[in-house]
Amino acid sequence: MSGKGLYIQLFSLHGLIRGHAQEMGRDADTGGQVKYVLELTRALAQREDIVQVDLVTRLIEDKDVSPDYSREIEPLSEKARIVRIQCGGRKYLRKELLWPHLEEFIDKTIKFFKKQQRTPDIFHGHYADAGYIAKELAKAFDAPFIFTGHSMGRNKRDKLLGDGLTLQRINKHYAMDTRIHEEEKIIEKAGLIITSTQQEIDKQYGLYENFKSGHYKVIPPGIDFEIFYPYYNYQLDSEHIPEEIKQTRIALLKELQRFWIHPEKPFIFTICRPDHRKNITGLVEAYGLNPELQAIANLAVFAGIRQNIAEMEENERDVLTDMLLQMDKYDLYGKLAIPKKHDFETEVPELYRLCAESRGIFVNPALVEPFGLTLIEASACGLPIVATNDGGPVEIVKNCSNGILVDARRSAEIAAAIKSILINDDKWDEFSNNGITGIRNHYSWASHCHKLMQYIHETFPELEVEGISEEKMNHKFPERPSFGKRLTSSKYLMITDIDNTLIGDNDSMNHLLELLDQYRESIAWGVATGRSLELTLEAMTEYDIPMPDILICSVGTEIYYGPDLRMDKGWQQHISHKWRPEQIKATLQELDFLTSQEAEGQRAHKISYYMEDKPDYLAAIHKSLDEGKLSCQVIYSHGQFLDILPKRASKGKAINYLKYKYEFPSRKVMVAGDSGNDRDMILGATNGLVVGNHSEELATLQGKVRVFFSRKTYAAGIIDGLVHYGFIPPHEDLEQFITELPGR
After folding, report:
1. For residue range 583-619, what is the model confidence (pLDDT) as tens digits?
2. Radius of gyration of the chain measured on its C-alpha atoms
3. Phi, psi (deg, nearest 5) at residue 50
4. Which CATH fold would you assign to the domain 6-218?
5. Are 427 and 386 in contact (CB under 8 A)?
6. Architecture of domain 232-442
7. Is residue 369 classed as helix, strand or coil in its secondary structure?
8. pTM of the model
9. What class is the 578-647 domain?
C-alpha cells in the first residue's frame, strides 16, 4: 500500500465472511455483524484520509463450506480487502470454540505485518473474541484500540438464565465466564467503544464492573441506499427494472406462493437466525392464536439457511422444531411460509419491497435486540415495523416514527400491533413514509464513518493523516518504538545469556551496549537465562543494563517484551501442552538425592532442584519420569542445577518461536552462551556464538556448523560474533576495537 492516510484493521473473527453472496442466517455466527463489518470496511475505504482498510477474519478450509473462505486475501475495493488468518485448524468452528486459539491468531497476524512491512495505525475489534485480539495487538504496537461489542456477555447470560438455562449449561456451551472476563479487560483498555444506541451503553455495558472506565460514543450503523430503496421506485419507473431483479422477484413470489392458499393477501414478514432469543415462536404464536389476523394476512418466516434440521446445532434445531410443531398445532398450513434458504444480497431487499407492495408489515419479535439492522433495511424499503421494546428498536422508532414497539414476551400485544397497522391505511402510509425519510436522515454509512473518524482524532490526537508522526511518536515513546514495531521492522535478532556471557567484564559489556544502541534500527536484542524474571531484573539493575526488547526467563519457559514486561501469552499456551507439574513433583518426591530449590526458583512451567553431579542420579530421574508417562524434559547445568520443563519449552525452542512469530530468517539470528543450559539454543537453526570463557560442557560443540567459538571472553565475545556473522559491518576502527577487547 502507498500514499497518505491511516491504515485501519477491523477484526471480526467468527462466522462466514466473504465479499459477495453473504450466507446470512446459515448459523448463529453468520448474522448482522457480518454485514455490519463488511459495509463499514467498504465505507471507510472510500474516505480520502484512509489509505487502507483490512477486514481480518479466520481462514477456513472445510469441505462443508465454500472455498471462498480459504482465500488468504480477497479484495473488496481499491483500498479495502478481507485478510484471512488461519488458527485452530482449518475446519469451521462456532465462536465459543475459538477462545483457545486466539493467541495463535495473534502470532500469525504479527507474521502478516512482518511480511507486508507495515503495521496498522488503528486496531478495531468487533465482538469479544476479536476485541481480545485487537487489544493485544494494539498493546504490542502501542497503537489505538477501538471496540464494538455488538452484544455483551453479561446481558446475554441474564437473558439465558431468564429463559431457564442453568449456569453450568451456559458456561459449557457459550464459554460465558471466559467471555465476560475478557470483556471486563476490553472495557478497561479500549480507547474508544462504539455502540449503536445509548440503551446499549446503559443496559449492556452498565452491567460491568469496569463500566465507568469505558469511553463510549453512540454511532448508529448505516445501510446501502443503492440496495435498500423504496418499493414505489418500481411503480414509478416500472419500464427500467433490470432483468435480473425481475427474475429474482418472480422466483421469490413462486417460492412464497407455494405455501399460501391466498397469495393475494398482505403478508407479515420476519427474517432472523433460528435462535431462541429471536423469539420466532412468539410471532408464530401471536399469529396462530388470532384467527382475525390469519384472515387478514399471510405470514412468512425466513429463519436462516437450512438443509437438514436434524444435523443443525441444538439451539437452532430446537427453534426450528418448535416452529414446525406450532405450525401443526395452530393448523397454519396454507398461511405460513417457511422457505429453507435465501440469498442475502439479491433476495432480501426484494423481499422487503414485495412485502411493502402487498401493504404488509415487518416484525422483529426478538426478546432483546442490541440494534436491529433488519428494521432499518425494511423501513428504507417502505415497510412499517413492529418490534421489541427492549434495545435498539426504541431509538430507531424514536428517530423515525416508523412503527410500533411491543413487549415481545406477550403474543397478544404483538398480534394487536400488527393488526392495528394492517387495518388502517392512513397509519400504514404514515409509518411507511416516515421510515423511508427517517432512515435516510439518521442511518447512512457515510455519516457513521464521518463521526467515527471525528471521535478517533479527538480521542487519539497523536494520529495524523499519515499515521503517527515521528515527532509525536518520540514524544509518546521517548525511549524507542513498541516491541511490536521493533521486532517486525528489525533486520537482525541477537539473544544472549546473562551470566558469564553478557556480564563478567564491565568494559566490554558497556561497549556492546553502546554498539546495540548505535545499530538499534537494524538489530533487536534480548537475553535468555535460567533466572526467574525477578532475578533477571535484579541482575540488570545491578549492572545498569538497559531493558532489552526481549527477556527469555526461567530456562525458556517465559517470554517478556520490554520495556513494560508484557508476557507472551501465546508462548505460555504453546508450552502448556501435556504439562502436568503436580504429577511430576509427586513422582520425583521419592528420589532422596533431590533438594527442591527455593520458592523463587519455581515457576508455573519450571520445577527446579539441586542435585549432585552423578550420572546415576540423572538416569534415575529419566527412568521415573518415563515410567510415569510424563511428557517433559530434563536440563542439568553447572554441576548442581536440575530443571524440569514442558516438552515444548527451552531457551532454544523459545528462540525458534520468536523466529517464527516475527519472521526472522535463521541467518539473521545470533545466540550467545557459555554453559550447558545454553546448548540447545546454540545448536538451534541459528548462528551460534560461544564466548571464550565457556564451560567444558560446550567443548563438544567445536566444529559444529554455524557455531562460532570466539577467543574473546564475556561480552567481548558477543561483539566478535556480531562482526563475524555480519550483523555489524566491519570497518577499520571496529577491527582495532575488537583486537583490544579482552580474550584468551
Report:
1. 999 999 989 999 999 887 789 999 999 999 988 999 9
2. 31
3. -125, 130
4. Rossmann fold (3.40.50)
5. no
6. 3-Layer(aba) Sandwich (3.40)
7. strand
8. 0.82
9. alpha beta
